[in-house]
Structure formats: structure tokens, C-alpha cells
Amino acid sequence: MLSTDPKQRFSNRVEDYIRYRPGYPAAILETLREDCGLRPESVVADIGSGTGLLTQLFLENGNLVYGVEPNAAMREAGEQLLEKHPHFCSVAGSAEATALPSASVDFVVVGQAFHWFEPTATRVEFLRILRPSGWVAVFWNERMTDTTPFLREYELFLRRFGTDYEKVAETYPREQHMKRFFGAGNFEGRFFPNEQMVDFEGLRGRLLSSSYTPPFGHPNHEPMLAELKRMFDEHQQDGRVRIEYKTHMYYGQLEPR
In the prediction, which pLDDT does 193 show? Predict the structure, then answer.
């Protein structure tokens, strides 16, 4: 049965998540440097850090990063991926209760997890752990659904086979959610192109990393993979297909309410 607990939905998808989820463009760091004063000595909390895709970007920038993740399997995978980074600290916590000290970080960042948070409690917690004049930055990769014949067919495929694809898609944050969270006029938005070029194994892994796809043992699992292979064979060029994304970036400073 598919878990309805957002903190557990990815427990059986960790390996695919690590290998096949898209990363984040380096341009987001440049924006934070120019607009928010990000420096290598800035302390960062990555909330809902998962397997460490966003954390790794900040570690490579020289930052001390607290990776806060409630899901044990995802957190342990992140620890294995990032164990060689001396500035990485893994924390068992959630957006609503990070377990971090008050006024301990300069930046709170969120990648691909914001829609799982309870916004009111999360906002209070972020204000608590941020130092004065600290920043919040929220990122997510939105897969394009109508830019190529393959992506149009892939979208229909997900709506056909996804266990709760449309329900999950409806929870993805939009600009109006950022207005409610930051306050109108208190944030900026930026958008960056992003993409993956994947062979069939990469496409299969990307699909299975999603929480809404039927897992092994589900009656639709094998038919889904057979249809995926048919689609790949039809659209591949030189053994690969392109998955296009738009990386959303919203950032600002929170004011107490």
C-alpha cells in the first residue's frame, strides 16, 4: 500500500532517488551570492534534505550545512553520499521541528520538499532557527509537460499509471503559496532551465523515484514498465531521451507575524 505519510513516502525509493533525480543548477548559488550575501562561511540548513542533492551543492561552495531530514532511509542515504564532507551535519528533524538551536543559521534552503510541510508551523520554526537578517530560499524542479512529443506522452502516461499523481501534482507550490509564506513583496523569484539526458535505465529509475508510481508487486507495476519501454523506443535518439525542467527559485527574508 502507498504510504499517506509524507515523511515515509520515499522509504522504498531511496536508491532510485539518489541515482536518477535531477540536481540543481549552479546559477542558484550565484543568485544567492549576489542578492543575499551568501559566502563560504555562511551556515546553511537544508530542510527536507533527503538524499543530499541540494546539500551537496552548498557543501561544494564551502558552507557548513545541516541536512535536516525526517525519513530515516533518506537521511542515511544522504549520510553515505556526503560522509566525506567535513562540513556536513546530518540531523533527524522535520520542517516543523528541526532540532536545531535558535538563531543558528544564516540560510534556510528547501529543495523539492516544501509542498510536504505544514506552512504555519514551518514558518515559525524557520524564524526561530534563522539569525537576524537570515534568508530563506525555496527550490524545486518542475518537469515540463508540453515542450516535446515525448514529454507530452510521458505526462499522459503518468496520469494513467500514477497511483495519486494528480493529487500530488496539485500540492506542488506555486507563486501564491510563496506570497502566503513570505508575505507579498517580501520575496523574489527566479527561474532557470534544467534538463536530464537519460538512457532507458535512467528513465526507469527517474520514474520509480517518484512517490506516486506503483511499486514492485503492485498489479500495474509491470504493465507500467512495459509501456515506458515502448515510449522510450519510440522517442529515443541515440539511445537517450531528454527530460526538460524549469528550476523555480524563491527567496526572501521572513518577518514575524
Answer: 95
